[in-house]
Design goal:
Elements: H1 20-28, E1 52-55, E2 59-60, H2 63-70, E3 76-80, E4 83-89, H3 94-98, E5 106-109, E6 115-116, H4 122-139, E7 152-153, H5 160-163, E8 166-168, E9 173-174, E10 178-180, E11 186-188, E12 193-194, E13 199-201, E14 204-206, E15 211-212, E16 217-218, E17 222-224, E18 229-230, E19 233-235, E20 238-241, E21 244-245, E22 250-252, E23 255-258, E24 261-262, E25 267-268, E26 279-282, E27 287-290, E28 298-300, E29 305-306, E30 311-312, E31 316-318, E32 323-324, E33 333-334, E34 338-341, E35 344-347, H6 350-362, H7 370-382, H8 384-387
Parallel strand pairs: 3-5, 7-10, 8-11, 9-12, 10-13, 11-14, 12-15, 13-16, 14-17, 15-18, 16-19, 17-20, 18-21, 19-22, 20-23, 23-28, 24-29, 25-30, 28-31, 29-32, 31-33, 32-34
Antiparallel strand pairs: 1-4, 2-6, 3-4, 26-27, 34-35
Length: about 400
C-alpha cells in the first residue's frame, strides 16, 4: 500500500466513504483502534483488554465476514486460504497475531466472499462498490437533511427511489447544483459545501467539511475525503482527505493521500493510447508491475504537490513530500522528497517539507506534531535509496 502506508496505518486507508477502521467500528458497534508497528504506532495508541478481536486491516467488512468474525470464541482464528482474517484472544496473543502465526490458534476456515486491500490500486478498483456499502451502513434508519428546492435532482424531487439515494448530513450546504443518483447513491457529509453549477453523479461521497467548487464535475466512484477542496473533473478516484484540487483539470482513477495539492489545470491520464494494461511502480519488487487495470492514473503520497499545468501519464506514482513542476510529463515513478520535474530533480529537504506541511495544516486548524515530524524523518531515511540515482 506504499506510498500511502509510509505515513498511516493500514486501518486508516479510506475506501468508499469510510476508512477501514471506521467501517469495522460501525459494523461491530465497538470503537476500533489500529494495532500497528514501527513509528506509525505512535499515531495509533491502542488499548488491549482481556478479550480482543484482532482483525486484519486489509479486510473490508461486509455482513457475511462481520458475522463470522463476531462469532469467534477465545483463541479461535478465522482464516481463508492460509491468511488470517481475524483472531479473538487476550492481550498476550498480540505477537502471534502480528506474526500471522495461525498455528497458535484454532483455525476456522471462512469460504464466504470479502475484499482485501493487497495493493494500493485496489482502492481504485473497490471504491465504487464500497461507497454503496458505506452509504447503506451510514444512512440506515436515519433521515437526510431536506434537499433545497434550488438543487436539481435528475429524475425529479418527487421520485422516492431517487431521493432516497441522496443523503445530506446536518450543516451541509447545497444550492443550484445538480444531483444524479440514477447510477448510485450520493452522500454529502456534515458541513460540506457544494457550490452552484456543480454536477454530481453517484455513486460518490463528499465527506465532512469538504468543498466542491462552482461548475465541478464529480463522476461515479469518486470520494472526496474530509476537509478537501475540489473542482474540475474527478472520476473514480479517492482523495483521502485534507487535500486540494480546487481548479479545473482532470483527476481520473487515482488516489491522493493527505495534505496534497494539485495546481490549476493539473491533468492525469488514466488510459494508455494503446489501451494496454497499466503498470505501477511496486515498492516490494522495486520495479513496475501490471495492475490488471486498463484505467489507472496517479497515486500520490502525503505532503506532495504539483504546480499549475502539470500533466501526469497513466500509472504514475509520486512518493511522500515531493514537489513537481516544469513542462513535459514527470517520470512514472517520482521518489519521496524530491523537487523538480522533467528538466531535472534534486532532493527536497526535510525542513522545507515540514515548513509547508505546518502552513497547510494550520489552515485546517490541525497541528503538525512531534509524531508527524518523527514519521517524516523516518520516511526520508528509508526512501533515500530511491533518490540516490534519480535526476
Amino acid at each position: 500500500m506504499l506510498p500511502l502506508s509510509y505515513t498511516r496505518a493500514q486501518g486508516e486507508m479510506r475506501c468508499g466513504i469510510l476508512t477501514v477502521k471506521e467501517k469495522w467500528t460501525r459494523y461491530s458497534g465497538v470503537m476500533a483502534s489500529c494495532l500497528s508497528t514501527g513509528l506509525i504506532s505512535q499515531k495509533n495508541p491502542v488499548s488491549l483488554g482481556n478479550d480482543n478481536l484482532y482483525i486484519s486491516a486489509s479486510v473490508l467488512p461486509n455482513k457475511g465476514v462481520v458475522k463470522a468474525v463476531l462469532g469467534l470464541n477465545e483463541n479461535e482464528a478465522l482464516v481463508s486460504k492460509g491468511d488470517i482474517i481475524a483472531v479473538r484472544g487476550s492481550a498476550e496473543v498480540r505477537q502471534h497475531v502480528l506474526d500471522s502465526d495461525i498455528a497458535a490458534f484454532k483455525a476456522l476456515e471462512y469460504d464466504g466472499e470479502y475484499r482485501v486491500l493487497e495493493k494500493v490500486h485496489n482502492l481504485i478498483t473497490f471504491n465504487k462498490d464500497e461507497i454503496q456499502l458505506d452509504f447503506e451502513l451510514l444512512t440506515n434508519g436515519r433521515q437526510s437533511k431536506p434537499i433545497c428546492e434550488s438543487v436539481t435532482v435528475v429524475g425529479g424531487h418527487k421520485d422516492p427511489s431517487l431521493v432516497n439515494q441522496i443523503f445530506i448530513e446536518e450543516g451541509a450546504e447545497l444550492e443550484c447544483c445538480y444531483l444524479n443518483p440514477k447510477e448510485g447513491p450520493i452522500y454529502i457529509g456534515k458541513n460540506a459545501k457544494v457550490s452552484e453549477g456543480a454536477m454530481l453523479r453517484g455513486p460518490i461521497a463528499i465527506c465532512e467539511a469538504s468543498q466542491i467548487s462552482m461548475g465541478a464535475k464529480i463522476f461515479p466512484g469518486a470520494t472526496v475525503g474530509p476537509w478537501s477542496k475540489v473542482g474540475g473533473e474527478v472520476s473514480n478516484s479517492v482523495i483521502t482527505g485534507y487535500s486540494n484540487k480546487v481548479h479545473d483539470g482532470y483527476l481520473g482513477d487515482s488516489v491522493l493521500g493527505e495534505w496534497c495539492n494539485l495546481g490549476a489545470d493539473t491533468n492525469t491520464s488514466n488510459l494508455k493510447n494503446d489501451f494496454a494494461i497499466v503498470k505501477l511502480w511496486d515498492y516490494s519488487t522495486e520495479r513496475f508491475a501490471k495492475t490488471g487495470l486498463q484505467f489507472c492514473g496517479l497515486i500520490m503520497g502525503d505532503y506532495s504537490r504539483c504546480a499549475i499545468n502539470t500533466s501526469f501519464n497513466s500509472g504514475t506514482v509520486v512518493g511522500v513530500g515531493s514537489n513537481i513542476f516544469g513542462s513535459g510529463f514527470p517520470r512514472n515513478f517520482v521518489p519521496s522528497f524530491v523537487i523538480g520535474g522533467p528538466q531535472g530533480y534534486k532532493v527536497n529537504g526535510l525542513k522545507p517539507v515540514e515548513k509547508v506541511a505546518k502552513m497547510a495544516m494550520s489552515r485546517r486548524n490541525v497541528e503538525f506534531n512531534n509524531s508527524d515530524s518523527i514519521i517524516l524523518n523516518e520516511v526520508f531515511e528509508v526512501t533515500k535509496k530511491y533518490r540516490t540515482s534519480f535526476k
